[in-house]
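Backbones bend. Shown next:

***
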Amino acid sequence: ADKMIDLDAPLSYYFNPIANPAWQSVTARQLASHTSGLPHYKNNTDLIGLYKSIALNEQFDDVTDALELFDSSELLFKLGTQFSYSSYGTVLLSALMQQVSGSTYLDVMQQRVFSPLLMDATQAESQSNKTPNQATFYWQNASQSHLLRPWRSVNLSHRLAAGGFLSTPSDLVKLGSAYLNPHYLSDEIKSLFWTPQKLANGQVNEQNYALGWRVGEAALAAPLGKTKFIHHGGVSRGSQSLLIVLPKYKTAIAININTNTEVFWDFGKISLQLAEIFLNNHSAAIN
């Protein structure tokens, strides 16, 4: 039988010893919903780790090695009491997946996600082979958007699970579509991923964040109207991505760009515009 993670078991159940005593009572659910209190990059009080996350020039071949960048940082708040997005929380979650599975995190992703979903263009950024069709990532001057220059080379292996993969819109759509395929994910598991999580006070967190996904309502142009949409975006050095799933229409849409916009949604809103075009044309073709 597959080894499973209990979402509500403390990390001390899986890690002995544990890298940071403050993590002992943290749960996988809290890590996946960003309610653990782990820091994001800028509020990391592990100063050596903070420096390394800025330098971006060190290779981490194992996700557990990357924990050293934040394993002496303080928690931001009492477990489960607030929401605060933390890429480091996602890195710690990937280390937990590796610990429980007995396989490397990369192998888990390859065997459970990339291979079965035929995501052949997705790979770790730090292990990617430069190919002629790989995009160049650009820095853009916020006040003079026509001024572009290539980003310096960076190594994102320390944040593999939280933004260290290279992919394509086509591969990301395969991932989004898998959530609509009951042969890949049962309705029970899908519901688990897509249920906004409550804080310790019983209130749903302010971002309506579920487990690895945000849950929102999109106001599409008539005649489509309001519909539930599940989404997650990502921002990295000279790149942005967004994947959305519209369960009602059994549709997934992904967009990528090889630069950054000052306001993420100036880029992200294109996904809903594409949804309107596609769904209206699809409906017209059927009718």
User: Anything to note?
Assistant: The mean pLDDT is 93. The chain has two domains: 1-123, 167-287. The CA atoms of residues 241 and 247 lie 20 Å apart. The radius of gyration is 19 Å.
